[in-house]
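Worked Example 4.2. Consider the chain below.
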Amino acid sequence: MNEEIFRLAKPRRKGILGLIFSRFLLIAVLLALQIAFYVGLFFTFKQYSTHLTTIVFLLTLVMVIYLFVSPIDASAKLTWLLVIFAVPVVGVFLFLFTETNIGHRTLKKRSQATIDATRQAIRQPEGVLEELKKDGGDVDDLVHYLNRTGCFPAYKNTEVTFFPLGEFKFEAMLEELKKAERFIFMEYFIIEEGYMWGKTLEILVEKAAQGVDVRVMYDGMCEMSTLPSDYWKLLQKRGIKAKAFAPIIPVLSSHYNYRDHRKILVIDGKVAFNGGVNLADEYINRIERSATGRIRPSCSKATL
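Applying the procedure from the previous section yields the following C-alpha cells:
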C-alpha cells in the first residue's frame, strides 16, 4: 500500500483547508451570488405589483398557448403547466432558462454532425444480421435500434469476459494496455490520482512516447472533486490527447445536468472494456469510501 504512486498533480488538500482552497467552494460562492442577484432583482420589481399583475397574466397565457402547440413530450408539458400556474414568473423564467440552454444546444449540434459524418465509418459485416434474425431472439432489433443514433455494427466470433470485481478488471486492463500498438481510447466518468490511475498512466505515457495514439476523456465534474482544472494540459504534456467533458464554470446553467457517465476503454479496435468501474482506488477495493466496506462494481471485456 506504501508503493510510490505515479502522479501528474500535487495531492489535493484534505479536510477544512481542502474545502476552503478548493475550486468547488469558489464556484459555489459565485453561483450563490448570482442567485442572490436574481432574487434581489425580483423583490426590487415587486413594488410595482399593480402593473406586474397584468404582465404576469399575459405572460402566463402566452406560455400556456406555447406549451400546447410545442412538440415537447406530453408529460413534460403537464409538468411545466403545473409549475407555471403555481409560480408564474419563476416558472416562466425557469422554463426559458432550461429551453434556451445555448451550451447544450451547441454541443448537441456538434455531436449530431459527428454522428452523421461517421455513420458509415465502420461497415456492418455481411451475414451477421441475417444470422441474428434466424436465432429467434431480439438482438437484431437491438442492433437496429442502436444504429439509429450512430455506427454500431454487430460482429460474430467474439469473446466476452465478465469481471465480478474491479480488481480483476484492473489486472486484465493493464495486460491489454501493454499490448497496444495503434491506439488507446479511454472515456470515464471519474478519474482520481492514486494506485489504479497511476499504474494505468505509466503505461499510457510509455505508449504515447512509442507513437501510440492515446486519448483520454473524463467528466468535467472531476475538476470539482478529484482533479485540478488544468489536468488535461498535464496529460497533453505527456503526449496524451485529453479533454474534460462539460467542465464546470461559475455561470448558472442547466447544461451541468449533462454528465458523461461512460466507462469505456478501447484498444486497437480489438479489445474493449466497459461496465461500472471508474479509474479510482475504491473501484479496485484498495480503499473504502463507505461503511458498507468492499464494493462490487462489475465490468466486462469484449474481444474481436
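The first strand starts at residue 159 and ends at 163. The two ends are 35 Å apart (CA to CA). Compare this with Example 4.1 before moving on.
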